[in-house]
């Protein structure tokens, strides 16, 4: 895989191998917490859990919808940017003004995957091979790849 900067400060990805392309195409779905209580709790924690019902209700009514909308908007941006890759091309571009959406969605995907598959620090630091062909093994790999992509974007911002 090659990564270059364009004249406007965006990133151009090319020559993406098939296995990485599959992981990148999965970013929007990996970031979707629906169907996992653990993932939803991780993304939308209750700041007053068990302490103050009124504050919890207000947070659920006023803050949670805005957070959810922000997550969905960022994921939609990422999905649109990935369209060339989804269409069979071997790369895509992240425009400069989409980098924040990418960072947010990659972080969300990592949190959702870790919550959904109960991945912890020991899993992330494991050096022994994982069982092949398991969903959990794929999740750990995705978390690592998405983290590397986040790091690449952050290190190369001006």
How are the strands ordered across the major sheet? 1-2-3
| Category by helix and strand content | mainly alpha
- CA-to-CA gap between the ends? 22 Å
Our estimate of the beta-strand percent is 5-15%
Q: Give the H and E element order.
A: EEHHHHHEHHH
In words, what does this structure look like?
This protein is mostly helical. It has one domain. It is 61% helix and 7% strand. The protein has a three-stranded antiparallel sheet. A hairpin with a 5-residue loop joins strand 1 and strand 2. The longest helix has 29 residues. The chain is globular and about 50 Å long. The chain starts with a strand and ends with a helix. 24% of the residues are buried.
Quick recap:
The protein is mainly alpha-helical.
Please tag this protein with its features:
158 residues, 8 helices, mainly alpha, 7% strand, 3-stranded antiparallel sheet, globular
Write the layout of secondary structure elements.
Elements: E1 2-5, E2 11-14, H1 18-25, H2 27-30, H3 37-43, H4 53-81, H5 83-86, E3 92-94, H6 99-116, H7 121-125, H8 135-155
Antiparallel strand pairs: 1-2, 2-3
């Amino acid at each position: 895989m090659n990564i270059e900067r364009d004249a406007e400060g965006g990133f151009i990805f090319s020559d993406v191998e098939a296995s990485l392309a599959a992981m990148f195409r999965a970013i929007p779905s990996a970031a979707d917490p629906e169907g996992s209580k653990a993932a939803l709790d991780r993304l939308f924690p209750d700041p007053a859990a068990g302490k103050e019902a009124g504050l919890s209700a207000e947070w659920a009514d006023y803050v949670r919808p805005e957070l959810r909308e922000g997550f969905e908007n960022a994921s939609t941006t990422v999905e649109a940017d990935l369209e060339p890759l989804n269409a069979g091309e071997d790369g895509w571009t992240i425009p400069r003004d989409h980098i924040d959406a990418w960072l947010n969605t990659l972080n969300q995907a990592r949190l959702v995957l870790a919550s959904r598959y109960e991945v912890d620090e020991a899993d992330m630091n494991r050096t022994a091979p994982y069982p092949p062909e398991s969903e959990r093994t794929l999740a750990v790999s995705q978390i690592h790849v998405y983290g590397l992509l986040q790091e690449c974007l952050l290190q190369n911002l001006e």
